[in-house]
């Protein structure tokens, strides 16, 4: 898919946070109650349900999580809100993949190639080369600062670590992951096969 002249394919919204599973549980709980704008403000800013140091940080992360979860249905929100740690983590990952093509393509292209070619770990060069490839599709990436590129790398690698696809952000060793049956069934039933493809890269 090629980008239109003024429509970015990739964006840096993911810099607001990694998986944020505990925060996502709180946001999923809110969404399931269908909050009015005043209720949302009360929960995020006044009650500080995300337990952030500043209202600005709370609103920024709440917006990211809401944007992710809003791409999925309440059935997935319930998994996030009350599921086990593993179930909630994979549910949030599915929403994050749907929300960020930057994350999705990195998993589907770079990590998949590593598994197919038996290269057992990621590297910093993988990220640099990946962004060069992305820029061929979306020239807007050429406008990203070095600081933005570095932060995006940290966030994507942290997501992969939190989701169990690598053993840590320093060693970057790839780990096999099995998609939990409930998540797999949800993604198939809701025609999210692209998301499932990204999550099944190690199989």
Topology, please?
Layout: H1 21-32, H2 37-46, H3 55-69, H4 74-82, H5 85-99, H6 101-116, H7 124-137, H8 146-162, H9 181-189, H10 193-199
Helix pairs in contact: 1-3, 1-4, 3-5, 4-5, 5-6, 5-10, 6-10
Terminus-to-terminus distance: 25 Å
Q: Estimate what percentage of residues fall within beta strands.
A: under 5%
Gross geometry? globular
Q: Give me the CATH architecture of the largest domain, please.
A: Orthogonal Bundle
Count of helix runs: 10
Reading off the top of the CATH hierarchy, the class of the largest domain is best stated as: Mainly Alpha
Domain count = 2
Alpha-beta content class: mainly alpha
Q: Give Rg in angstroms.
A: 17 Å
Characterization of the model:
Helix 1 (about 20-30) crosses helix 4 (about 75-80), helix 5 (about 85-100) crosses helix 6 (about 100-115) and helix 6 packs across helix 10 (about 195-200). The longest helix has 17 residues, at about 145-160. The chain is built from ten helices and no strands. With about 200 residues, it is an all-alpha fold.
Descriptive keywords:
203 residues; mainly alpha; fold of a uncharacterized protein from magnetospirillum magneticum; 2 domains; 10 helices
Quick structural summary:
61% of the residues lie in helices and 0% in strands. The chain contains 10 helices and no strands.
